[in-house]
Write a structure and sequence with these properties.
eight-stranded mixed sheet, four-stranded antiparallel sheet, alpha/beta, about 300 residues, binds adenosine-5'-triphosphate, Rossmann fold, 12 strands, 9 helices, binds magnesium ion
């Protein structure tokens, strides 16, 4: 296992109260695997990713990276681990410094992690080519690139210090549909050639299916279901996953009647005041009175399929 996360919590203390952004998240990521993390906007996907690589201080739980507990490591002790775990950000426009050239952006992590200086320039050229750009583009600024090209620069920056694991935080959702597949395919090729492990965040179940070995479905700070990707799509168990899948267009019209459309009632509750017990119960079509006072844990339902609902 490259990563083992147990009971991870991240709360934010805000003037309005405590936001329960990540509220007991557990999963494992095997070496070379892609784990998809999906859920609606605001359910805590980015906060999970950022807490795992210790951009945020966790408020509970444990993070084991390659067998070592990094939950409480100081910034200084984290430095060798930061080299091994990188992040690709959601918005390639906001995540690249507009005043730095592409080359300087890619070189920056090499400086931070003390890679030999005489290798930087060659390595920048190599990385630019690796992500489908050319080395002459090193002197250009972010605004001179398209959205897809900017994300390629963000990927090159993440790869600069040869990480083993990358948190890909919705790396294509800000891009034109026409170039999303190119970037996803490139990430898959890079994974194979470099032996990378990915935590791949998305809010769209259909886009994550192809790239993920397994998928974790998140709702209001918790994982409600986790299973092999094909298994999840063919046999969704949790009422939330069922509703998410019913929102995915089905290409084969003959099969469309097999998925009954489950409309969720109401809005996602606020993470400031999550419902007691199972926090999905306020929108769950199968909710029972006891759901307000039980805290469902992920249970093994067989076949490596985990679901946090005792009633399925
Ligand atoms: N720095 C912060 N301070 C206070 N609250 C925060 C902070 N970051 C995130 N939150 C809150 O935590 C919750 C989870 O946010 P997060 O960004 O992790 O969700 P997400 O699943 O990544 O959403 P999206 O799909 O929109 O990117 C939200 O309620 C959000 O408002
Ligand atoms: Mg996010």
């Amino acid at each position: 296992m490259i990563l083992e996360v147990t009971g991870l919590k991240k709360y934010f203390d805000t003037p309005a109260g405590i936001v329960h952004s990540v509220d007991g998240v557990s999963f494992k990521l095997a070496k070379g695997e892609t784990l998809g993390l999906v859920g609606e906007s605001g359910c805590g996907k980015t906060t999970t990713g950022r807490t795992i690589i210790r951009l945020y201080e966790p408020d509970g739980g444990r993070i084991i990276f390659d067998g070592q507990d990094i939950t409480r490591k100081s910034s200084r002790d984290m430095l060798p681990f930061r080299k091994r775990m990188q992040m690709i950000f959601q918005d390639p426009y906001a995540s690249l410094n507009p005043r730095m050239t592409a080359g300087d952006i890619i070189r920056e992590p090499m400086i931070i992690h003390g890679l030999p200086k005489d290798e930087h320039t060659d390595r920048v050229s190599h990385l630019l080519r690796l992500v489908g750009l050319n080395s002459e583009q090193a002197g250009r600024y972010p605004h001179e690139f398209s959205g897809g090209q900017r994300q390629r620069i963000g990927i090159a920056r993440a790869l600069a210090v040869e990480p083993e694991m990358i948190v890909c935080d919705e790396p294509v959702s800000a891009l034109d549909v026409s170039i999303q597949a190119q970037i996803v395919n490139m990430l898959e090729d890079l994974q194979k050639s470099l032996g990378l492990s990915y935590l791949f965040i998305a809010h769209d179940l259909s886009m994550i299916r192809h790239i993920s070995t397994r998928v974790a479905v998140m709702y209001l700070g918790r994982i409600v279901e986790l299973s092999g990707s094909d298994e999840l799509y063919s046999r969704p168990m949790h009422p939330y996953t069922v509703s998410l899948l019913s929102a995915v267009p089905i290409p084969d019209p003959d099969k469309s009647d097999m998925r009954k459309l489950v409309a969720l009632k109401g809005e996602v509750p606020s993470a400031l005041n999550p419902p007691s017990g199972c926090n999905f119960r306020t929108r769950c079509p199968e909710a029972k009175p006891e759901c307000s006072h039980l805290t469902p844990e992920l249970e093994d339902k067989g076949n490596g399929h985990y679901c946090a609902c005792p009633f399925v």
